[in-house]
Specification:
The chain is an alpha/beta fold. It is built from 30 helices and 18 strands. The protein has three domains: 289 residues, 2-enoyl-CoA Hydratase, Chain A, domain 1 (Alpha-Beta Complex); 180 residues, NAD(P)-binding Rossmann-like Domain (Rossmann fold), CATH 3.40.50; 218 residues, N-(1-d-carboxylethyl)-l-norvaline Dehydrogenase, domain 2 (Orthogonal Bundle). Helix 6 runs parallel beside helix 9.
Length: 739
């Protein structure tokens, strides 16, 4: 039988080599075709008496990048259809059987009576890693790029083809739970330490080693099918088990606030499954998988964090009329903390980088900072000296603007001041080569007004990096009124080449991310002035799903900078453009109390010297509150909702203002850019899964109680009346993903 995604060859010793090599793709993924063909291969090799054993390997550099969630999304859509057409019982049974199909196929590998060996090189993630776990022998390449893991929880799912049952039967329970709940992949050495693989060898020796194991009598029985099998951590109700699961439950609640059904289901799968024989345990897993797949959280996270993000990463917002560009050399003007980081990620992506500062010493300091970042990575085993040296060799530091003459892209990252930026443009423009694109890294200043100081405005665009640049995956690309398609295409190509995720927004003060973040921080300040205890403000924000509280975030972004931005906005747009009570609070903290935030060790929080110890809320905060509310009289649920609703309303305003034209940008941008509760799928998905009508009703309630910042925009009211969704109304703005 001929297969599309696999090649099956049996050698003279009767060993079948199954090579996974999906045509036209750089990496294998567990898609519908692969799942179906693997099922057929298992049946065929099991029935063929000439086959003595099976080796499954890859024809690509990596074994498998994970499960194709388009397949999972299709299952969800079919369930929705069946629920409507055939009723709940039939729909639930159909979804369970679909969830179970591949799990049964992999289980048949274990019980085939023939030894299966897996050879792993590069990535083996998600469903791909689960395939290797059901093999009787796993040999992995001694390759620093190799990673094994189950990242499903990061997109609102749980491993559905055996991962929650096989990992905790191989690895110590605490390590297994950490791997499943965090979703982070492990290195080769860690995988061997956890008993997830049997041997580590050079990549060239993997298939031979797998065949030798089969020929030497490799046992075709999984450990859990042995009569004398014992769990690595002992029985659930043993002393060790009772130390693991109650503590794990506490950690789960601390980290998730019970916002993530998939994480809860993983814990239940492991706890229940380890008390059962493997076949019953796998059935439990399939039931939980089917249950989670029906949740709003899974649908929202899959759409935003996998499907939409993948589409944006592949260039769905890129103008189709512009040929692809390869940015070879980049200049960064203003190589301070952020600028040096931009230079670092550009050089690490293989580009030549010129760092330009007013003083040579500052330019050299930027390179020194890059070296210190690398040294830290090397200490933690995440990089090498050769990688560091090669990256630094691609970077040069100077004060001479003439150095940009052969650069394809120039990124200005000077102080957030129009006059300073204009001066940099004047110095740079005479040296720009034909076709070069000029970008400004600004977080608030309108691009169109900045472009007024630039001669060829079609080549001028905004590229807003989020700090810390090395860690933050989002880049906000801002299109000015006169920005041309070539500039947009080049910016998107560059962001893709440095491995970041881009969103495209139109010009407006604060753009998208900072407008929403300002509302989040402002709501925390409103609560503070209302008399809500500061600790309650912070904790309720985190309970709502935000990564840090608004008072803490204010400190991180600098209180004095926030006051400066408020005053600049007021000067440009008038006193009604900002909240005066909020401004007065900033004046009190910054100018009267000398509290600038983390930068000077005191803001809403006090910070220990040199990072020793933990930060703590400043005890003097109570004196700045006009009144003090009794926390026992406050609704935690309402406080949580206020944080999410005020950001979501602002996101709708950005749609109404034509800043956001594609809902994917708002959802992906809000999660990656400022940590908007990932379980919601992002700011617009939060509204969509609640229902626009219900959301408008909630806005009206908060508007009456707290003010106009909760007033639902006319667009949202209209959508609620028509029963529309953002992904339905703006579907025409979403371009298909390039092949």
């Amino acid at each position: 039988m001929t297969f599309k995604n696999f090649k099956l060859e049996t050698d003279a010793d009767g060993i079948a080599v199954v090579t996974w090599d999906i045509p036209g793709r750089s990496m294998n993924v567990l898609d519908e075709t692969s799942a179906s063909e693997l099922e057929q291969i298992v049946k065929q090799t099991t029935a063929d008496s000439a086959v003595k054993g099976v080796v499954i390997t890859t024809g690509k550099e990596a074994f498998c990048g994970g499960t194709d969630l388009s397949m999972v999304e299709r299952m969800s859509k079919e369930y929705t259809w069946a629920l409507k057409e055939k009723g709940e019982i039939t729909a639930n049974q159909m979804l369970f059987e679909q969830s179970r199909r591949l799990s049964l196929a992999l289980r048949s590998i274990e019980t085939s009576g023939k030894p299966w060996a897996a050879t792993i090189n590069g990535l083996a993630l998600g469903g791909g890693f689960e395939i290797t776990l059901c093999c009787h022998y796993r040999v992995v390449a001694d390759n620093p790029e190799t990673r094994l893991g189950l990242p499903e929880v990061k997109v609102g799912l749980l491993p559905g083809v055996g991962g929650t049952q096989r990992v905790p039967r191989l690895a110590p329970p605490r390590d297994a739970m950490m791997m499943l709940l965090k979703g982070d992949p492990v290195t080769v050495d860690k995988a061997r330490q956890l008993n997830l693989v049997h041997a580590i060898l050079p990549a060239a020796d993997l298939i031979k080693a797998a065949k030798d194991w089969i020929k030497s009598g490799g046992k075709a029985v999984a450990p859990w099918d042995e009569k004398d099998f014992n769990l690595p951590g002992g029985p659930i109700y043993s002393k060790n088990g009772m130390m693991t699961f109650p503590g794990g439950n506490a950690i789960y609640r601390r980290d998730t606030y019970d916002n993530y059904p998939a994480a809860r289901a993983i814990m239940s799968c492991v706890y229940e499954g380890l008390q059962l024989p493997i076949d019953s345990a796998l059935r439990v897993e399939s039931r939980y998988f089917a249950k989670i797949l029906r949740s709003n959280e899974a649908a929202a996270m899959m759409r935003s964090l996998y499907l939409s993000r993948q589409e944006l990463d592949k260039g769905s917002r890129r103008p189709k009329n512009v040929p692809p560009s390869k940015i070879k050399k980049v200049a960064v003007i203003g190589a301070g903390f952020v600028g040096a980081s931009v230079g670092y990620i550009s050089a690490r992506a293989g580009k030549e980088v010129v760092l330009i500062n007013r003083h040579q010493e500052n330019s050299e300091n930027a390179k020194t900072r890059v070296k210190s970042v690398f040294d830290d990575l090397i200490r933690r085993g995440h990089s090498s000296e050769s990688d560091r040296d090669a990256t630094l060799a691609r970077m040069s530091a100077t004060v001479d603007y003439a150095a940009i003459k052969d650069c394809d892209l120039i990124i200005e990252s000077v102080f957030e001041d129009r006059s300073v930026k204009s001066a940099a443009y004047a110095k740079a423009e005479p040296f720009l080569k034909e076709g070069a694109i000029f970008a400004t890294n600004t977080s608030t200043l309108p691009i169109t007004s900045l472009a007024g100081a630039f001669k060829d405005q079609a080549k001028f665009i905004g590229i807003h990096f989020f700090s810390p640049v090395e860690k933050m995956m989002l880049v906000e690309i801002i299109v000015g009124k006169n920005t041309g398609d070539a500039a947009l295409a080049t910016a998107l190509d560059y962001v893709r080449q440095i491995g970041k995720t881009p969103i495209v927004v139109n010009d407006f003060r604060g753009f998208f991310a900072n407008r929403c973040v300002a509302r989040y921080i402002g709501e925390g300040n409103h609560m503070f002035l209302e008399g809500v205890p500061p600790a309650m403000i912070e904790n309720c924000a985190k309970m709502a799903g935000m990564p840090v509280g608004p008072l803490s975030l204010s400190d991180e972004t600098a209180l004095d900078l926030r006051l400066k931005i408020m005053r600049a906005t007021e000067a440009d747009l008038g006193p009604n453009a900002i909240d005066q009570a909020d401004k007065n609070l900033m004046v009190e903290l910054v100018e009267k109390q000398g509290r600038f935030g983390r930068k000077n060790g005191k803001g809403f929080y006090d910070y220990p010297d040199k990072g020793k110890g933990r930060k703590s809320l400043w005890r003097g905060l109570a004196d700045l509150q006009p009144k003090h509310l009794d926390p026992d009289t406050l609704s935690v649920e309402e406080l949580k909702q206020r944080f999410l609703v005020v950001q979501a309303v602002e996101a709708v305003r950005t749609v109404e203002d034509n800043v956001i034209t594609d809902p994917r940008d708002a959802d992906v941008g809000s999660i990656l850019g400022f940590g908007f509760a990932p379980f919601t799928g992002g700011t617009l998905s939060y509204i969509e899964f609640m229902g626009t009508k219900k959301f408008v009703e909630l806005c009206r309630k908060f508007e009456a109680k707290y003010g106009s910042r909760f007033t639902p925009p006319e667009l949202l009211v209209e959508m609620a009346e028509k029963g529309e969704t953002f992904y339905g109304r703006f579907a025409s703005n979403r371009q298909p993903v390039p092949a």
